[in-house]
């Protein structure tokens, strides 16, 4: 206030009481005054002083109100942004569930449709011309085949899809003659989330998903009608079961009806040391397997392309039993899920496909 008073009334004291009076005495030739009497000029100066004082108080009050309200305003804006973000996340999840059906995505444009079904092919266009191709054309089914494969993942009275049983050792595993596929990967790679996405068209089917690594401790079998069985293996690495090696190795070596092993790799970080050991194990046992990159919705496009190229290099230089084409999936927005369903139906012998020339070209 003192600084504000001095700026309005230069030359006055710090208390600001003489500012208005100094305006009245500024004239060099003023008439002599009688003690105790007041002139019109004195009255005018008093009015000015009161007027300026009121202006100062109003300005100070306004500044104080604005300053005190800023934190409240910031909190309101922050809460509003959080609310809008939460709403958008719910909207994304709600729409994502609809993407699990081929019928829904068939209404999209051709470009959008291919980006959802064939994410690897969609990303290949961003590689430089002299870069190695990603073998995205090796498994390129027609849209009609993808729609046909979806029928195997939809339950009916004659085609029951449900959790079957669990086992901790190979001799506890159910004996069945129908084809079997196995999903294995590092702890917290998104294995259970992927299986839940594959079975998203089955209402009421419970696939337990946890944010804590190492949640799956047993071999969980899911029976898909009379056509094939899907096995969810415990994760290796952090918090893996103590008998993991004995459980998994004996199963991979002894299971006669195992048609394909799906080895999952985190698409946001690429192949880790434990993943490399799993690849070497599959190579040693001579079993057919395929690499699946999960969580492709997390990394930026450039980082994802680097991971894809490094995985492709491992496939070409270090493997013999691995399928040359890697699969990219996102359990959040169902990217690549439809293609993976079709591949499972194909390798289990339930679907014969014809290559889509428009996709492979």
At a glance:
With 361 residues, the chain is α/β, with parallel strands linked by helices.
Descriptive account of the structure:
This protein is an alpha/beta fold and 361 residues long. The protein contains 13 helices and seven strands. A seven-stranded mixed β-sheet has the order 1-3-4-2-5-6-7, with helices on both faces.
SSE class = alpha/beta
Query: How many DSSP helices?
Result: 13
Mass-distribution shape: elongated
Number of strands: 7
Radius of gyration: 36 Å
Proportion in helices: 40-55%
Low-pLDDT sequence parts: 1-36, 81-94, 357-361
Instruction: For the record, give the distance between the C-alpha atoms at the N and C termini, rounded to a whole number.
Output: 78 Å
Topology of this structure?
Layout: H1 2-8, H2 19-24, H3 40-98, H4 102-105, H5 110-117, H6 119-124, H7 143-150, E1 161-167, E2 180-185, H8 191-198, E3 219-224, E4 228-232, H9 244-254, E5 258-266, H10 273-285, E6 289-294, H11 301-318, E7 327-328, H12 337-347, H13 357-360
Parallel strand pairs: 2-4, 2-5, 5-6, 6-7
Antiparallel strand pairs: 1-3, 3-4
Task: Supply database-style keywords.
elongated, 11% strand, 13 helices, 7-stranded mixed sheet, alpha/beta, 361 residues
């Amino acid at each position: 206030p003192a600084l504000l008073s001095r700026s309005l009334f230069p030359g006055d004291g710090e208390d600001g009481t003489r500012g208005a009076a100094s305006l009245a005495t500024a004239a060099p030739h003023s008439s002599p005054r009688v003690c105790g009497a007041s002139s019109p000029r004195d009255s005018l100066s008093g009015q000015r002083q009161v007027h300026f004082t009121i202006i100062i108080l109003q300005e100070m009050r306004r500044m104080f109100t604005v300053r005190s309200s800023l934190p409240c305003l910031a909190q309101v804006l922050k809460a509003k942004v959080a609310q809008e973000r939460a709403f958008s996340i719910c909207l994304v999840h709600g729409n994502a569930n609809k993407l699990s059906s081929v019928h829904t995505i068939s209404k999209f444009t051709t470009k959008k449709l291919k980006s959802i079904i064939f994410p690897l092919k969609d990303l290949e266009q961003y590689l430089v011309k002299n870069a190695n191709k990603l073998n995205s054309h090796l498994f390129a089914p027609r849209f009609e085949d993808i729609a046909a494969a979806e029928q195997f993942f939809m339950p009916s009275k004659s085609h029951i899809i449900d959790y079957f049983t669990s086992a901790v050792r190979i001799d506890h595993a159910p004996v069945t003659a129908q084809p079997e596929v196995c999903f294995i990967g590092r702890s917290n790679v998104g294995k259970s989330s992927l299986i839940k996405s594959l079975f998203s068209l089955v209402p009421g089917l419970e696939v337990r998903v946890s944010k804590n690594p190492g949640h799956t401790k047993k071999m969980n079998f899911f029976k898909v009608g009379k056509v094939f069985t899907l096995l969810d293996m415990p994760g290796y690495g952090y918090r893996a079961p103590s008998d993991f090696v004995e459980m998994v190795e004996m199963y991979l070596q002894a299971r006669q009806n195992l048609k394909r092993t799906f080895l999952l790799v985190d698409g946001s970080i690429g192949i880790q040391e434990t993943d490399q050991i799993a690849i070497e194990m599959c190579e040693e046992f001579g079993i057919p397997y395929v690499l699946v990159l999960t969580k492709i919705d997390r990394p930026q496009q450039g980082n994802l392309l680097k991971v894809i190229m490094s995985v492709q290099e491992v496939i070409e230089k270090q493997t013999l039993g691995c399928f040359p084409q890697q699969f990219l999936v996102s359990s959040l927005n169902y990217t690549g899920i439809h293609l993976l369903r079709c591949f499972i139906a194909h390798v289990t012998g339930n679907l014969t496909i014809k290559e889509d020339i428009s996709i492979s070209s």
